[in-house]
């Protein structure tokens, strides 16, 4: 997961790049708008960080669900008791991880 510092740094860098481009093309109004946005960067970056982290959590959640489906398909296709036990343990670990992610997502809401 990307750090808060990395997300904020990228946001500021992107806006500074836009400001430099606005100066290059001589668009004074756009420059003023970008400067105002940069002045309000704390609130905007807080929202951005929350959104980015939530998106990352949802991607992890989706990967876990896909892996669980794969494991359930493997369970249906085997009669080997040792393999069944191993697959069930893996599914259980993924369920716990998914629960942890659910709690993190609820905290952000």
In short:
The protein has 109 residues and is mainly α. Helices cover 90% and strands 0% of the residues.
Q: Report the structural category.
A: mainly alpha
Sequence of secondary-structure elements: HHHH
Number of continuous helical runs: 4
Percentage of β-strand residues:
under 5%
Uncertain stretches: none
Rg = 22 Å
Largest sheet: none
Number of strands: 0
| Overall pLDDT level | 93
Separation of termini?
18 Å
Account of the protein in words:
This protein has 109 residues and is mainly α. The chain has four helices and no strands.
Please describe the topology of this protein.
Elements: H1 4-25, H2 28-39, H3 41-76, H4 81-108
Feature tags:
109 residues, mainly alpha, 4 helices
């Amino acid at each position: 997961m990307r750090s808060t510092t990395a997300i904020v740094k990228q946001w500021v860098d992107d806006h500074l790049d836009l400001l430099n481009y606005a100066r290059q093309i001589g668009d004074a109004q756009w420059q003023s708008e970008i400067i105002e946005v940069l002045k309000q960067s704390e609130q905007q970056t807080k929202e951005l960080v929350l959104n980015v982290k939530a998106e990352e959590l949802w991607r992890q959640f989706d990967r876990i669900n896909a892996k669980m489906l794969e494991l359930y398909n493997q369970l249906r296709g085997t009669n080997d008791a040792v393999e069944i036990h191993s697959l069930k343990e893996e599914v259980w670990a993924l369920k716990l991880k998914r629960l942890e992610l659910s709690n993190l997502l609820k905290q952000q809401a």
